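User: Let's play a game. I give you a shape written as tokens, and you guess the letters that built it. Ready? Here's round one.
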């Protein structure tokens, strides 16, 4: 039996193309053995290689022609956007009528490419594309994140829609832009803020530093100044990280000394959106709010539809 051909570790731990193998001076005949498996046409990996999500995206990029640009939610994914349930498929957009049916890849075809950068379509263009299929709530959360991390501006997103009003998603941008807030630090903050506004309650300011005299007490995730109400959107770290727990204890004690009201929104409460909104409204009423109660009508239901869609 012939001895197995030695290959560099790179080819054991990454997806690769046949051309890369040849460039490394290795005979492509090694691919005929059972040591390697084909992931996509022209893309291979070692049989024992278990790809991460980043490897899956990289393999998809190797499989596509260079004219196909990474797009939609996949473009945000490579920026580090923390999709909770990212699509299994990797999205690309290409100008023209090329048809490719590859496992785990969705190729969108268009007459004219949207604005692009070295990685794919621009983040602003990706947001516009997402408006065609993702929910309004998902798009606003992603848009807040892009603005916060300076990957796009509100103006850039609007300009993409203005330049190509025929593009899928472009009309929906008008529903997204007024809801964006680049000062949101976490996706949970974006979600709570948007749900409160969709139910007709006052829109809170985001990440507002609070003081008692000259003493900085902390930063309120969401702040309703008229009622001196801080809404704290608490993630898992507020319960499992001892340092965070200690910090919260001192912060809330400071709030109480300063006469600042606060309401803690847990992850469990966020999973019950109507109950969450009702809880905030009840606290506002206790503090003197005399506005209308929450309304869970068309505007509320539209959060789960693509931007610009009407709930019936």
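Assistant: Ready! My guess for every position:
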């Amino acid at each position: 039996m012939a001895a197995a051909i030695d290959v560099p570790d790179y080819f054991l731990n990454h997806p690769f193309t046949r051309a890369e193998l040849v460039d490394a001076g290795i005979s492509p005949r090694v691919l005929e053995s059972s040591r390697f498996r084909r992931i996509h046409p022209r893309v291979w990996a070692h049989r024992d290689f278990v790809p991460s999500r980043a490897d899956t995206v990289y393999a998809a990029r190797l499989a596509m022609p260079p004219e196909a640009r990474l797009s939609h939610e996949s473009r945000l994914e490579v920026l580090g956007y923390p999709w909770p349930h990212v699509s299994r498929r990797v999205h690309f957009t290409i100008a023209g009528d090329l048809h490719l049916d590859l496992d785990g890849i969705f190729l969108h075809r268009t007459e004219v490419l949207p604005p692009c950068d070295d990685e794919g379509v621009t983040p602003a263009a990706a947001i516009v594309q997402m408006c065609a299929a993702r929910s309004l709530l998902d798009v606003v959360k992603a848009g807040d994140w892009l603005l916060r991390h300076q990957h796009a501006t509100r103006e850039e997103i609007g300009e993409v829609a203005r330049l190509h009003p025929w593009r899928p998603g472009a009309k929906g941008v008008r529903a997204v832009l007024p809801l964006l807030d680049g000062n949101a630090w976490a996706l949970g903050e974006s979600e709570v803020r948007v749900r409160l506004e969709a139910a007709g309650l006052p829109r809170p300011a985001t990440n507002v530093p609070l003081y008692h005299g000259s003493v900085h007490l902390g930063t309120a995730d969401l702040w309703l100044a008229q009622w001196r109400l801080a809404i704290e959107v608490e993630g898992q770290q507020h319960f499992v990280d001892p340092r965070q727990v200690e910090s919260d204890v001192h912060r809330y004690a400071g709030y109480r000394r300063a006469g600042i009201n606060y309401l803690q929104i847990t992850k469990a409460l966020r999973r019950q959106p109507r109950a969450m909104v009702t809880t905030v409204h009840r606290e506002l009423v206790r503090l003197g709010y005399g506005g209308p109660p929450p309304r869970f009508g068309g505007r509320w239901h539209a959060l789960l539809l693509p931007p610009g869609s009407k709930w019936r």
